């Protein structure tokens, strides 16, 4: 892109480009050149807005985690309606149908990115820990409504559901169908419904 041409919302344009690369090609394909090429801008644009590529990646991951807030709110609002199994199935498909699985791999394999994220997110992998918190809050709401057992261990069920779903969705080439996700959810929560 020629210099002097204004780019609207550069940060979001670069983040959206990173999303597309992660979903299409995986974390190993995510480079500063790939992001700027995908975004249709000069490589220098990224470095004018971010200290370095790891700073870009850290802000990208945190931005995507904060986007999960709407999903969390929707799941909390679903408490008391539909079925617990369907609500959890839909939430897990929405979460892992996004760029979340690729972000987990990205964070896992980039030491400097993990170090930067630790400054803002002291424990766990941001996408997964936020998802566990969301699922636990939903399960607690359902427990309060009497739709799951009063002694249901929501703090154990939530990471079990997230881990199970993550394993189902980890293969970028073969996404599980809704029935497979629902079967896994049913198996995990059957004892507390």
UniProtKB/TrEMBL annotation:
UniProt superkingdom: Bacteria
This protein's UniProt keywords: DNA-binding, Membrane, Transcription, Transcription regulation, Transmembrane, Transmembrane helix
Residues within the DNA-binding region(s): 31-50
InterPro entries: Homeodomain-like_sf, HTH-type_TetR-like_transc_reg, HTH_TetR
Pfam family, one: TetR_N
Annotated transmembrane regions: 91-109
Residue ranges annotated for the HTH tetR-type domain, each copy included: 8-68
GO MF annotations in UniProt: DNA-binding transcription factor activity; transcription cis-regulatory region binding
Matching Gene3D superfamilies: Tetracycline Repressor, domain 2
PANTHER family documented for this protein: HTH-TYPE TRANSCRIPTIONAL REGULATOR RUTR, MYCOFACTOCIN BIOSYNTHESIS TRANSCRIPTIONAL REGULATOR MFTR-RELATED
Source organism per UniProt: Saccharothrix texasensis
Name this polypeptide is given: TetR family transcriptional regulator
């Amino acid at each position: 892109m020629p210099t002097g041409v204004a780019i609207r919302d550069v940060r979001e344009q670069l983040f959206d480009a990173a999303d597309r690369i992660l979903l299409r090609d995986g974390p190993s394909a995510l480079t500063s050149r790939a992001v700027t090429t995908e975004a249709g801008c000069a490589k220098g644009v990224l470095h004018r807005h971010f200290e370095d590529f790891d700073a870009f990646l850290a802000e990208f991951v945190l931005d995507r985690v904060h986007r999960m807030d709407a999903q969390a709110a929707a799941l909390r609002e679903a408490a008391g309606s539909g079925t617990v199994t369907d609500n959890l199935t839909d939430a897990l498909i929405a979460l892992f149908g996004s760029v979340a699985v690729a972000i987990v791999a990205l964070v896992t394999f980039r030491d400097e990115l993990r170090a930067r994220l630790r400054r803002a997110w002291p424990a766990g992998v941001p996408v997964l820990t936020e998802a566990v918190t969301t699922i636990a809050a939903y399960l607690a709401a359902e427990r309060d409504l009497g739709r799951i057992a009063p002694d249901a261990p929501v703090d154990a069920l939530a990471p079990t559901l997230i881990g199970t779903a993550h394993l189902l969705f980890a293969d970028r080439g073969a996404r599980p169908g809704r029935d497979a996700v629902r079967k896994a959810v049913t198996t995990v929560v059957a004892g507390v419904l």
